[in-house]
Design a protein that fits this description.
single chain; 5 strands; alpha/beta; lyase; Rossmann fold; globular; about 140 residues
Length: about 140
């Protein structure tokens, strides 16, 4: 079982809901997290249970980032709106940086999200289970 987070900017929330609906059977076997409104919208349209954090501008991105830093997140789907300035851009950049530091698969658009979810469905991300035993940058 993987820990998976969903984050979507306002103009991408509907796209996220449709994506999760399309792959609901894949996600149902995993522990799911999201920022506030995104999680609510997904739960309204699916049978999935999602642990919700604050909305992104109120610290939700940072809460997910904390899980990344503790090696408690395996995959993030973050549908960003590249055409709209975000008031919490530093938090977004910090999350993206943490994913790079800790080697967390991260999709920021629907095409990459689909590739990752198909890999997840095939079991290609099983290497993440090994990573749970070792935290990058700690005791190395």
């Amino acid at each position: 079982m993987m820990n998976i987070a969903f984050i979507a900017h306002d103009r991408k929330k509907e796209e996220m809901v449709n994506f999760v609906l399309a792959y609901e059977s894949v996600f149902e076997d995993h522990k799911l997290f999201s920022t506030g409104t995104t999680g609510t919208r997904i739960m309204e349209q699916t049978s999935l249970q999602i642990e919700r954090f604050a909305s992104g501008p109120l610290g939700g991105d940072q809460q997910i980032g904390a899980m990344v830093a503790q090696n408690e997140m395996d995959l993030i789907i973050f549908l960003r709106d590249p055409l709209m300035a975000q008031p919490h851009e530093p938090d977004i950049n910090a999350l993206l940086r943490l994913c790079d530091v800790y080697g967390i698969p991260l999709a920021t658009n629907i095409a990459t999200a689909e590739v990752l979810v198909k890999a997840l469905d095939r079991g290609d991300l099983g290497w993440r289970e090994l990573v749970h035993k070792y935290k990058p940058g700690v005791d190395q």
